Amino acid sequence: MTDFPERVFSGVQPTGNLHLGNYLGAIKKFVALQENHNCIYCVVDMHAITTWLDPKELATNTREVTAAFIASGIDPEKHIVFNQSQVSEHAELAWIFNCVARMGWLSRMTQFKDKAGKTQEKASVGLFSYPSLMAADILAYRATHVPVGDDQKQHLELTRDIAQKFNNDFGPSIKEKGYGEAFFPLTEPLIEGPATRVMSLRDGSKKMSKSDPSDLSRIVLTDDPDTIAKKFRKAKTDPMPLPDNLEDLKTRPEAENLVNIYAALSETSKEAVLADYAGFEFSKFKPALVELAVEKLAPISSEMHRLQADPGHIDKILSNGADRARVIARETLDAVKDIVGFIR
Ligand code: AQP
């Protein structure tokens, strides 16, 4: 198998309401990976229009996600931060992947089924082919590792299927052009830690999500301390005190969710949280969680506000990142065109 240099890629959609799940499941991990990897972090604005989004909101949200990246500790100089639509190679590669991926593969994507619901006929074609574009986002950089939340696991498996089929279908051409056995790596998802699936604060069986109609279901990164306190205070729980073991916690989804959030924010394990809080009533545990969440989130929120007050500066970061991303993506696309047989 061909060896690929390690490279991290991931993206966040600018669809508003950036929440604690996006932060703990993705952005916080992006920050940690910068230590030892070359990282590319993308605001995936082309994914955001697969369902209707007001153009003004899209621009504001794109700057907000960029501000969240930087306020959380992503360094746009050492690594690359940009918005997807500025690098048209993503769309070009997605077309080729649309011709590699099979209808049956995409039809099995649970996210499409959830989002399109009972009105699939009315869903955009983009919503259906979204995973091909996601594969292109990743493979335009031949990224080897992708940190994501648990909900993206299936899309990552599809990315591997597309890479594998491309490598097989074009195998002889890949070899002939001097790229060895495989042109695309089989990307590894990085889905680890206690917060790979942060659940709604109103319903422990549903994931925390930007599109949940209830504001109380999620902590938004720009929430002020009073709002954070109110949302955790109103978070659904059960009447029992916290247990002293993981087995008992497993049967109590809302309690497990709050323990997971506490563990992820304090960078410890659920076991360690239970060791400290076993036997505590929620009336005691929730204030401790609020204090921790405010301590961790308030600096991010105030830095986001500061950055968003200067949209010109954010736009410069994005266009500078796009220039650097485009160089890598263009090189991939030129090779892909040669492999596929397009004359250029
Ligand atoms: N609840 C979550 N727990 C852990 N990780 C999560 N992610 C999303 N929700 C959770 C991760 O955040 C990253 C960015 O997500 P996205 O913006 O690309 O889109 P999404 O998964 O569609 O986000 P939402 O909030 O769930 O939006 P809607 O309501 O539109 O469905 C990804 O790595 C994702 O796994």
Account of the 3D structure:
With 344 residues, the chain is mainly alpha-helical. The protein has 2 domains: 8-196 and 310-340, Rossmann fold; 215-306, Tyrosyl-Transfer RNA Synthetase. Helix content is 55%, strand content 6%. The protein has 15 helices and 5 strands. It has helices at residues 20-33, 45-48, 55-72, 89-100, 103-107, 110-116, 125-139, 153-169, 171-176, 225-233, 246-250, 253-265, 270-277, 282-308, 311-340; strands at residues 8-12, 39-43, 80-83, 145-147, 188-190. A 3-stranded parallel sheet has the order 1-2-3. It has a two-stranded parallel sheet with strand order 4-5. α1 (20-33) links the parallel β1 (8-12) and β2 (39-43). α3 crosses α14 (282-308), α12 packs across α13 and α12 crosses α14. The longest helix is centred in the last third of the chain and has 30 residues, at 311-340. It is globular, with a radius of gyration of 21 Å. The model has no long low-confidence stretch (mean pLDDT 97). Residues 12-13, 15, 21-22, 25-26, 148-149, 151-152, 195-198, 207-211 line the site of adenosine-5'-tetraphosphate.
Question: What tags apply to this protein structure?
Answer:
344 residues, mainly alpha, Rossmann fold, Tyrosyl-Transfer RNA Synthetase, 2 domains, 3-stranded parallel sheet, two-stranded parallel ribbon, 15 helices, globular, binds adenosine-5'-tetraphosphate
